[in-house]
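Private note to self, pasted from the team thread so I don't lose it. Backbone tokens:
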């Protein structure tokens, strides 16, 4: 799995939020490497969906970015996509991310978390 309990424990400790891998519906994903995660809050339950699209392709921008696909309303959950252009690892080795790349990824993850936890009236 791309996201492990160890890597997201800080989110649970800080925000009461966990990321749980979810099986996508047929045709839901635009690429087989995309990961769908349910964003669950310890008191509120499911509060959104997050899609992780980590690997490079011809149609992507270079730096990581967070796309808000659907904002929270009274009738719908927020949906965000974190899109990156990382070179996939080979075999048993995961992609190598330097400190600058990790900082950018965490900045975008922070934007996604903000989308899930915000309670705006309008």
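Design output:
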């Amino acid at each position: 799995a791309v996201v492990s309990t160890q890597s997201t424990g800080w989110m649970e400790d800080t925000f009461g939020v966990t990321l749980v891998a979810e099986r996508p519906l047929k045709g839901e994903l635009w690429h087989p490497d995309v990961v769908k995660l349910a964003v669950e809050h310890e008191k509120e339950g499911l509060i959104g969906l997050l899609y992780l699209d980590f690997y490079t392709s011809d149609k992507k921008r270079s730096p990581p970015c967070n796309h808000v696909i659907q904002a929270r309303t009274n009738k719908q959950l927020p949906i965000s996509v974190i899109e990156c252009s990382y070179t996939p690892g080979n075999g048993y080795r995961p992609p190598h991310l330097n400190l600058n790349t990790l900082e950018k990824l965490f900045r975008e993850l922070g934007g996604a978390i903000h989308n899930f936890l915000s309670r705006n009236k309008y």
